[in-house]
Design a protein that fits this description.
With 192 residues, this protein is of the alpha/beta class. Helices cover 40% and strands 27% of the residues. The strands form two sheets. It has a four-stranded mixed beta sheet. A four-stranded mixed beta sheet has the order 5-6-8-7, with helices on one face.
Length: 192
């Protein structure tokens, strides 16, 4: 096995470099080259200031890794810990945070300036349902052909729409003409 050690060592070092790039930017064990380090034990007790070699030996004796947690401190702070368990716990916490995070969607409702009152009421009910679910709503009016000459009708329609949803929504963005569309944003009042 000793005759193959020189062949496998470069490959092993390359794999270690790739793995350390994928890690959370912590230096581990032999990667730590500082002269003096402040060492914290696995249980959180301070073990004092010692050289990197002594700290590595101490960590090896306990069966843990030496991890640099505060590289900018003078001297740098290292902790003796099980690094794989630390990474696992951190990924688990990130998953939990992601699971508890609610994604707010933007729902869009399109109308024309010549919409009938019953159709408008249906659109208002749909918007109120979206807002009750906690989503933002983009309300837009599309102008076709000669309707562009009467953009004030679209603005009035959007203001009436916002007034109909005023109990559960606030107008985030006032009506604004962008090309052939005039749009505004409504956001739910009780955004939890």
């Amino acid at each position: 096995m000793c005759e193959y050690a020189d062949v496998w060592r470069p490959l092993f070092c390359f794999i270690l470099e790739v793995l350390t790039i994928a890690k959370l930017d912590h230096q581990l064990n032999e990667e730590i080259q500082d002269k003096e380090l402040r060492i914290i034990g696995e249980d959180g007790t301070q073990l004092g200031i010692m050289s990197a070699e002594e700290a590595n030996k101490l960590a090896e004796e306990q069966g843990y890794d030496l991890v640099k947690i505060s590289p900018n401190a003078v001297p740098p702070v290292c902790k003796i810990m099980d690094y794989s368990k630390f990474c696992f716990d951190q990924k688990k916490r990130e998953k939990e945070a992601k699971k508890n995070q609610k994604v707010v969607e933007v729902k869009e409702i399109r109308m024309s300036p010549s919409i009938d009152t019953n159709d408008l009421n249906t659109k208002v009910k749909a918007a109120q349902k979206f807002l009750a679910d906690g989503n933002r709503v983009k309300v837009s009016v599309r102008f076709r052909g000669r309707e562009m000459a009467h953009t004030n009708l679209g603005e009035k329609l959007l203001m009436d729409f916002a007034e109909a949803c005023a109990e559960i929504a606030t107008m985030e963005k006032n009506p604004k003409l962008e090309g052939r569309f005039m749009g505004m944003f409504l956001a739910p009042k009780n955004s939890k």
